[in-house]
Amino acid sequence: MFGKLLGMMSTDMAIDLGTANTLVYVKGQGVQLDEPSVVAYVTQNGRKVVHAVGSEAKLMLGKTPFGMEAIRPMRDGVIADFEVAEEMIKSFIQKVMKKRSLISPLIIICVPTGATPVERRAIHQSALMAGARQVHLIDEPMAAAIGANLPIDEPSGSMVVDIGGGTTEVAVMSLRGIVYSRSVRMGGDKMDEAIVNFLRREENLLIGEASAERIKKEIGTAKIPDNGNGMSIEVRGRDLMNGVPKEASVSEAMVAKSLQDPVSEIVEAVKQALEAMPPELAADIVDKGIVLTGGGALLRNLDVVLKERTQLPVTVADDPLKCVVKGSGIVLEDFENMKDILAPDV
Ligand SMILES: Nc1ncnc2c1ncn2[C@@H]1O[C@H](COP(=O)(O)OP(=O)(O)OP(=O)(O)O)[C@@H](O)[C@H]1O
């Protein structure tokens, strides 16, 4: 009763604190914030003073003047810079709490299943320091499965593969619990890096990670085109032979080649999961197939390649970038009935 009253007076929220993007779902209001996990700061007297957060800070990556730095405080799905991450969470919380509430919020926050107890405590602590009255953690693939409308209550395995910026989580849910999970430190960031390395090696062209991400989103594909080189786009970078800026044409076939290793790693993680799980569960997956969530699921033909190499049905969830936050939001809205699926306290 008292808890319910507190809930009515506070702005409770669910946060998908991602390596690439942070999304916030506010109880009763839906997804209210969707911004890159980037912070720009200046250091004054040994303290990092925030200059910009989110979309504004992302524009500054790689372009900051002396004395200022723009960084991504999350790496591989966990906090890499505690001080900056806390400031980022604080700033996002303040952004969604439009009117001042007297009662601080209850916050559900997502963690990768591969996060260690120390990393889980760091995320828990940073949300508390950012002003939460109560913090609960939820495993990312569980949130993704709920957000993708998978039947997690049934006594039958449902497999989700959540491909984020820093991690890929392969998990099977049954009877409201995770029965198998595997987290690999492979995701969209490694794909961007692979594009940078390929162009450096094969074309003597040095480009930044933001350009690589743009190439991936515009013409990226997990499958080498059957005929010819596919579409091409113009890309600017530095010519490594003579050090001057140059423009070059990058084709779909080149990008597909550069993405072969990251794509294979994702396929391998799924195959290892299928080999390691009990046969009853594997039989369920053969029937129901695999659902892809996370931004990486938007890479063209990734579903096709996974289908070819696993011989299982593969589908991409609706709005894959929002599955995790929507799933956590569903738990937040029905907290009393769904709190059993939260991760254990740290
Ligand atoms: N159309 C697209 N094609 C390929 N990749 C894409 C596309 N759109 C977004 N991405 C990639 O998806 C990734 C971000 O996904 P998402 O927001 O699910 O990750 P995250 O939750 O921040 O990361 P993590 O779960 O690892 O902490 C980025 O690497 C981005 O480049």
TrEMBL record:
<keyword id="KW-0963">Cytoplasm</keyword>
<dbReference type="GO" id="GO:0005737">
    <property type="term" value="C:cytoplasm"/>
</dbReference>
<feature type="binding site">
    <location>
        <begin position="19"/>
        <end position="21"/>
    </location>
    <ligand>
        <name>ATP</name>
    </ligand>
</feature>
<keyword id="KW-0547">Nucleotide-binding</keyword>
<dbReference type="GO" id="GO:0005524">
    <property type="term" value="F:ATP binding"/>
</dbReference>
<dbReference type="InterPro" id="IPR004753">
    <property type="entry name" value="MreB"/>
</dbReference>
<comment type="subunit">
    <text>Forms polymers.</text>
</comment>
<protein>
    <recommendedName>
        <fullName>Cell shape-determining protein MreB</fullName>
    </recommendedName>
</protein>
<keyword id="KW-0067">ATP-binding</keyword>
<comment type="similarity">
    <text>Belongs to the FtsA/MreB family.</text>
</comment>
<dbReference type="InterPro" id="IPR056546">
    <property type="entry name" value="MreB_MamK-like"/>
</dbReference>
<feature type="binding site">
    <location>
        <begin position="165"/>
        <end position="167"/>
    </location>
    <ligand>
        <name>ATP</name>
    </ligand>
</feature>
<dbReference type="GO" id="GO:0000902">
    <property type="term" value="P:cell morphogenesis"/>
</dbReference>
<comment type="function">
    <text>Forms membrane-associated dynamic filaments that are essential for cell shape determination. Acts by regulating cell wall synthesis and cell elongation, and thus cell shape. A feedback loop between cell geometry and MreB localization may maintain elongated cell shape by targeting cell wall growth to regions of negative cell wall curvature.</text>
</comment>
<feature type="binding site">
    <location>
        <begin position="213"/>
        <end position="216"/>
    </location>
    <ligand>
        <name>ATP</name>
    </ligand>
</feature>
<dbReference type="InterPro" id="IPR043129">
    <property type="entry name" value="ATPase_NBD"/>
</dbReference>
<feature type="binding site">
    <location>
        <begin position="295"/>
        <end position="298"/>
    </location>
    <ligand>
        <name>ATP</name>
    </ligand>
</feature>
<dbReference type="Pfam" id="PF06723">
    <property type="entry name" value="MreB_Mbl"/>
</dbReference>
<keyword id="KW-0133">Cell shape</keyword>
<dbReference type="GO" id="GO:0008360">
    <property type="term" value="P:regulation of cell shape"/>
</dbReference>
